[in-house]
Amino acid sequence: MNAPDNSMVHLSIILFTAVFTDNILLARFLGMCSFLSVSRQVKTAVGLGLAVVFVMTFTIALDWIAYRYILQPYAIEYFRFILFIVIIAAFVQFVEMALERFSPVLYQNLGIFLPLITVNCAILGASLFMVIRAYGLAEAVVFGFGSGIGWMLAIIAMAGIRERLNNARIPKGLQGPGITLVIAGIMALAFIGFTGVLSGR
Amino acid sequence: MMARKKTSDVVLTAIWGDNPVFRQILGICSALAVTNLVLNTMVMGAAVIFTTALSGLTVSLLRKHTPRIIRMMVEVLIVAFYVILFDQALKAYWPEMSRNLGPYVGLIITNCIIMGRAEAFANANPPGLSFIDGLASGIGYSIVLVSVAIVRELLGMGSLLGVAMPFFSSSLWDRWIIMVMPPGAFFTLAVIVWFARTAQKDREAEKKQGAK
Questions:
Q1: CB nearest B197 (choices: A26, A173, A185)
Q2: Is the ipTM of this complex over 0.85?
Q3: In chain B, which residues touch A (CB < 8 A)?
Q4: How far apart, in whole angstroms, are the C-alpha atoms of residue B54 and residue B132?
Q5: For residue B1, is it within any domain?
Q6: Distance of CA B168 to the CA centre of its chain
Q7: Residue A14 predicted with pLDDT over 90
Q8: Domain boundaries, chain A
């Protein structure tokens, strides 16, 4: 295995790619369920987005450690699906309890979103991408953080647009999920525009 | 007679009336990304059908022996078991496809449809019927995804299943590159959902009038 490249340039490219050009939601279609159902208000979108950033950054680190030091030595990599899910669920549960105990204010704002996150495929997806791309620990954490930020950006933008759409007249069959998908498509187009930034390097 | 009617009812509601994709846009996360090629989508659909059907059967078989508190945990493990089976088989016999699908086979575990069927149907119904319900839900889901893939591959690459199509691959047709890129998936699905919902609404309206 090659030694991971931990230079600042390399890491910042991973970050930029994860946030913009290879956005986990708009280019990889992960985390769609909560994206479509919890994007009605900007306030809730911000809460859910923050929770995703937080959980994704930490679970990807935990998953990396578990994969490298438990699964690989015993050659039971196929067990990763179950192990990653258990780690994510346990971490979310733990954070929920810790928040409730130490920071009731934060718990009130973020607490309701935490259970939703366990079933958010973006979290598991990020960890699976990490395995496939053979990231080192630093790369993995940066990738997880960037993906979380990218997801949060997308859902906040979507919520902002949907709040405006409340007064718009939309064809009956297109209301709800239909129009949301159209907007997501347009947003994905806009994000593709960022590709030029990297290729012009 | 009764049993047969019920079976056909289950199939019909799962595929059309209650199709999870039209109704709630549930569970597209794990699959929309692979709809750029029809072949990939069909394999993905097969994986979903395999998992929903067999996990429905297993959950239903175990439903009387599972304590209610750890129910969800057991369901996740059952689903994960079948997904791992499929993933390993694919890796062994068709490594190329396994690479194409990347992490998305594994993501079937978090597909809300499968958990939803296990929770809502298999938990309360006999094994045979649960198996059929899972099968039908999986098929309903795959039909939608394959139709998205057909539109995308035809307009974007001028081919179907890798075979060049007469008109669309000729110079008369400008390939819509955007259809193969991510936005194409969103737009195609939006249009399909639009048609399906309008059709369903009309039907409901007809039913109501008929009842009067």
A1: A173
A2: no
A3: 24-30, 32-33, 76-77, 80, 83-84, 87-88, 102-103, 106-107, 109-112, 115, 178, 181-187, 189-190, 193-198, 201
A4: 9
A5: no
A6: 27
A7: no
A8: 30-196
Question: Bridge-partner residues for B163, per DSSP?
Answer: B160
Q: Which residue of A has its CA nearest to B88?
A: A78
d(CA A22, CA B33): 12
B6 falls within a domain: no
**CA-closest candidate to residue A161, choices A192, A137, A185:** A185
For residue B50, what pLDDT is reported?
A: 92
> What's the gap in Å between the CA of A100 and the closest CA on chain B?
22
The amino acid at B54:
L
Angle between helix B182-211 and A177-192 (nearest 10)? 170
What is the rounded CA–CA span in Å between residue B90 and residue A41?
41
Q: Measured between CB atoms, which of A31, A33, A178 is closest to B193?
A: A178
Q: How confident is the model at residue A1 (pLDDT cuts 50, 70, 90)?
A: very low
The size of the A-B interface in CB pairs under 8 A is: 120
Q: Is residue B2 part of a domain?
A: no
Q: CB distance from A164 to chain B under 8 Å?
A: no
Q: Please report residues of B whose CB lies closer than 8 A to that of A186.
A: 183
Residue numbers of chain B with a pLDDT score lower than 50: 1-3, 212
Length reported for chain A: 201
Interface membership of A116 toward B (CB under 8 Å) = no
Q: Which two tokens mark B111?
A: 């597909």
The answer to the question of residue B59 being in a domain is: yes
The model's pLDDT over A133-165, given as tens digits with 9 standing for 90+, comes to: 888 888 999 999 999 999 999 989 989 998 888
Assign A22 to helix, strand or coil: coil
For chain B, give the longest Cα–Cα distance. Answer: 63
Average pLDDT rounded to a whole number, residues A30-39: 78
CA angle B36, A143, A98 (to 5 degrees): 120
Flag if A171 and B183 touch (Cβ within 8 Å): no
Tokens coding A90: 């346990």
The pLDDT, as a whole number, for residue A3 is 57
**What is the distance between the alpha carbons of residues B207 and B201, in angstroms, rounded to a whole number?**
10
| Residues of B in Cβ contact (< 8 Å) with A184 | 186
The structural domain count of chain B equals 1
Q: Give the range of the structural domain holding residue B72, as residue numbers without chain letter.
A: 26-207
Instruction: Indicate the residue type of B2.
Output: M
